[in-house]
Design brief:
single chain, alpha/beta, Metallo-beta-lactamase, Chain A, 9 helices, 18 strands
Length: about 350
């Protein structure tokens, strides 16, 4: 097996792989049985190529990019130029054009006719993914996505919720994100660590404000709201995005997420996304009655949650303890194919 397809025996699957998440770059790959969609392109072309290779993919496995916003950790001019050279299209919002107008890589994409703008309605990409954007509170035009992609022809779609940068959340956001198979939500900082970080107060105040970043507490509140709106069996995997390396700890974020899952009375495997290396890397297929079944990509190893050796989670090799929690509410079952 080359790593470019789901593990044998699990059926048609959608890969969800966070290539990088944090203030030094953001990119996530979503793909089925053909070339996939990148959410954001915040790594340089060489680094992005290495991350793609690490999850069993390459440039040939990318057909389009959907941009959440234009901050420097989500866009890279050199990668835009590489997209233009390879004929890979970019989906961005009307409000992103003005911010990117002076970017040479973006101009190359635009001049090649590879830029498509989205508004407030769902749009289709060349990968076959249906993307529903929703506005969030951050600097400038910023959006979260609900993505639906079928792993194969005539198969049910896998749904993914993705919210990487937002200073606050709303009931409308929770509505859009309900009933997805994989939920990615920002858990940027611990509020106490943010306040005592020694950073300039203007930055601290901005990060704590309604147009900054979700704290662990806020992320947990949103997760609980989404879970309470979602049917049993939905949202089997929760991915914590954009953790601050200075003002957060994976264990703190996971503990906050576990509390939300427990309060909602659900079973969810929690993953704290990584800045480096790519993590998590999931293969997801629609399960019976809408319940997804997940198996590890070839690059993954099984790791015990530490409480029950018979219950396993998925973790990338070499990551420190606590990055994943395989049974966050004490009721969970392991991934498909586990013990």
């Amino acid at each position: 097996m080359t790593g470019r397809e789901a593990p044998s025996g699990v059926g048609p699957s959608v890969q969800f792989a966070v290539l990088a998440s944090g203030s030094r770059g953001n990119a996530t790959l979503v793909r089925g049985d053909g070339p996939g969609l990148l959410i954001d392109a915040g790594l340089g072309p060489k680094a992005l190529a290495r991350r793609l290779e690490s999850v069993g993919a390459g440039w040939s496995d990318v057909a389009a990019v959907a941009l959440t916003h234009t901050h420097g950790d989500h866009v890279d001019s050199g990668t835009f130029a590489e997209l233009a050279r390879r004929g890979i299209g970019l989906h961005c919002h009307d409000g992103h054009r003005a911010a990117l107008a002076r970017d040479s890589g973006f101009r190359q994409l635009d001049e090649a006719g590879l830029v498509t703008t989205y508004g407030d309605r769902p749009f289709l990409t060349s990968t076959g993914a249906r993307v529903e954007p929703f506005p969030v509170e951050h600097d400038g035009a910023t959006f979260g996505f609900r993505i639906e992609l079928s792993p194969a022809r005539r198969s049910r779609p896998v749904s993914i919720g993705y919210l990487a940068d937002s200073g606050c959340w709303s009931e409308a956001m929770a509505d859009v994100l309900s009933d997805v198979d994989v939920l990615g939500v920002e858990f940027n900082h611990d509020e106490d660590l943010q306040k005592t970080s020694g950073r300039p107060w203007v930055l601290v105040r901005r990060n704590l404000g309604d147009r900054g970043h979700l704290s662990n507490r806020q992320g947990a509140e949103l997760v609980e709201a989404v879970l309470r709106r979602s049917r049993r069996g939905a949202i089997r995997h929760l991915v914590l995005l954009h953790l601050s390396q200075q003002c957060n700890r994976p264990a703190l974020a996971i503990d906050a997420a576990r509390s939300a899952v427990r309060a909602a009375g659900r079973r969810v495997i929690v993953h704290a996304a990584s800045q480096d290396p790519a993590h998590p890397i999931l293969w997801v297929r629609p399960g019976r009655r809408g319940t997804p079944v997940v198996a590890g990509a070839p690059a993954l190893v099984r790791a015990s949650s530490g409480r029950d050796p018979e219950r396993t989670s998925l973790a990338s090799p070499g990551l420190f303890d606590g990055l994943d929690d395989g049974d966050p509410d004490g009721m969970g079952d392991g991934p498909a194919g586990g013990p």
